[in-house]
Structures are given as structure tokens and as C-alpha cells.
Amino acid sequence: MDFTFTEEQRAAVEAARAVFSDVAPDRAPSPALTPGAVAKDIDRELWQELARTDLLGLTLSPDHGGAGLDPIALCLVLRESAKVLARVPLLESCAVATTVQRYAEDGLAAELLPRVATGELILTAAANGRSGHDPAELAVTARPESEGEGSPQGVGAGADGSGWVLDGVQTAVPWARVADRIAVPAHTARGRAVLALVPRTRDGVTLEDQVSTSGELLAEVRFDAVRVEARELIETEGCWDWLRSLLTTGTCALALGLGERVLAMTAEYTGKREQFGFPVATFQAVAVQAADRYIDLRAMEATLWQAAWRLSADAGGPLPAAADVAVAKIWASDGVRRVVQTAQHLHGGFGADTDYPLHRFHAWAKQIELSLGPATAHEEALGDLLAAHPLG
Q1: Measured CA angle at 129 (ends 78, 230), to 5 deg
Q2: Which of these, 54, 55, 127, 247, has the minimum number of CB atoms within 10 Å of its CB?
Q3: Which pLDDT tens digit goes with each residue over 118-165?
């Protein structure tokens, strides 16, 4: 069995490394020294460079101006972006665009995706629901416009092209202030999950600023009788589940890249820091802790590529792909937390110095750990999947 990456995937990594080589983790103000968000906008210079090197259309087909690669390639690039704390909606925009390509009607895909590939159009996703704990699709209702509020749900509602109406709240939506469209999961009266591509400026959409642990600007997005055209709403079964899995897997890639950079910083620091005339890296207690974190990273890597492969290949298995995604997020959440905590410990007081970037990585790691559910939430989801699909 060949586990090596393809030539095209390796080329994407090299292109990403070239783009991110000039990006410093402290390009924005420190979240520890900033009372609100570290910035109101994304790193526009970096975003344009990603577009210029064709990395924004990585998973889109050539018909839409993309490279035609798979989620594995996207995760490889996300891994590199996290090493420099890149302040761009690369995961959200690419994940939503890939979902649109896979599930939306051809007309909507042709309208949106070429502009995503060039960086002209930014997409994001509302994946946290009302509280961050309940399923996101339950936070917003979708009803056919023709039926009116309170009318019974008809069979085939929305198929007449009359449009839909959304009501509800989604919290902690990343990059909502700069996104052109927000992918909003919602539920119908029949309990079906649908996905709406809502323009940020649509009547009835209001945003309230929120600030993440990493200092980035999020938003609570409210939908008050927001009308969306029938073509802007994807009713295909499994669409939202697939997007959520891709977002979660991409978050695992961010955790891996961040953890690798932090462990490298720790190795460099402990190799130079001396006590009693010897580098502290030569002390057994330090070496053992660093080795444990290396093991964490290797487990994070193995489970990430298993999940990304299941999504890329649509491969079957004894459990649904969601189980592999849950395992990857369990390792990513717990692993990245342990990596940054050990790094802080081995750096001593220097790790808390705001002139040194480690505290930024710690803040981002905490945000990634809890994004799209902490380890305990995915352990529960995995248990439910095991109960529904007994092995053996």
C-alpha cells in the first residue's frame, strides 16, 4: 500500500511554503495586548498571494478555474498556513466552495466558484449553532416563502422556485464581516437539514461582533425573515454533514501544523537554553516530555490523513466517514492542547513574554481545540456511531 502523497499534492505544499515563508506570526497585534479584535480585516496581501498562486481554487475543477485536487491537498496547505498563524479564511472559503461544487446546481456553482478561485469572492460557514453545543442546523429554520409563516409544510416545498425564508441565530461565525456569502445550515418543518448560501448584505441579516480566543473577529449572525432564492438553497441529502466533516477535518490540519511549529520552537529553545553548563534539552525530564508531544503529533497526523482520505475517496468502511473525522478531532483537540502546554512549561517565563510569539500559538491552539466541538463532544459522537453500527 502506497501512503505517499501524489506529485500534485506535493506541488501544492511547495507552493504554500513559498507563499507563507514571508508571513510572520506577529503580523497582527497581540491578542494579549489588544482589548478587542486584533484586526477588522483579513490579511489582504496574503489572500491575494494565495489567489495568484492558485491555492484558493485548489479543490475546484479546472472548469471553475481550479486545480482539481482533493481535500487531502487542502489539508496539506492548511497545515502550512497554521505554522505562521495565517489570518485568512482559507479553510472556510475552500470548504464551502468544495461543497457547492459537489452538491449545488450547476448555475450557482458557475456563478460563484470562478470568483472564489480568484479571491474576488469570500465564503464562510456558520457551523456553531446558537450556543456552540447544539447542532448548527437546529439554530435556523427554513420555510418555503409560498407557504407563509405558520402554514403547514407541503410535500416538495421550495421546488416551485418561490424561494425560502430563514429565521434564527448562528453564533461565532468566522470572518463574517468580510465574507460575501455565509453558508447557513438550517432545518425544515420536516426536520431535513438544508444549506443556504446567504449574501452577507441581504435584508434581514444582522451581525454583532464577537472576539475569539485567538483575537480574531467573529460575529453572531441573526436571520430575521431573510429571503433566499430557491437556487441559493441546497436541499441535497448529506450536504451539510459533508461540509461539517470537511470543516472539522481542516481544523485538525490546522492543529497539526500549529503543533509542529510549536514543538520545533520548543526544540530550538531548549537546545540553546543552558543550565549547569548544559543545554536543557539534554536533561531526561525535558527530553521525555518533548518525546511525548512528538508522539501526540504523529497520532494527530495519522488520524488526520485517515479522515481526509475517507472524504477524498468517498471510501466505505465498517463505520461512516464521520467516525474517522471524530477520531481525528479527538486527537487534534487533546493533542494540540498538550503540545502548547508542554511548550509553555519548557520555555519557562519566556513562553509568556508577549515579545515572543509562543503566547499567540497558545491562544490559537485553544481556539482550534474547541472549534467545531472539543474532544468530549466527538467522543460522544463516536460512541453514538459505534452503537448504531456494531462492529464484528
Answers
A1: 90
A2: 54
A3: 999 999 999 999 988 889 999 999 999 987 654 444 434 444 568 999
| Three-state secondary structure call for residue 202 | coil
Cα gap 216→220, rounded to integer Å: 13
Distance of CA 33 to the CA centre of its chain: 26
- Nearest by Cα to 334 from 380, 280, 373, 291: 373
From the number of C-beta atoms within 10 Å of its C-beta (0-12, 13-18, 19+), residue 227 rates as middle
Question: Would residue 97 be called left, alpha or beta, if left means φ above 0 and alpha means ψ between -120 and 50 degrees?
Answer: alpha
Q: What are the residue ranges of helices labelled H in the chain?
A: 7-20, 44-52, 71-82, 90-103, 106-117, 239-272, 284-313, 321-347, 358-370, 375-388
**φ and ψ at 11, to 5 degrees?**
-65, -35
pTM of the model: 0.95
For residues 305-333, give the mean pLDDT. Answer: 95
User: Alpha-carbon dihedral of residues 251, 254, 259, 262, nearest 10 degrees?
Assistant: -140
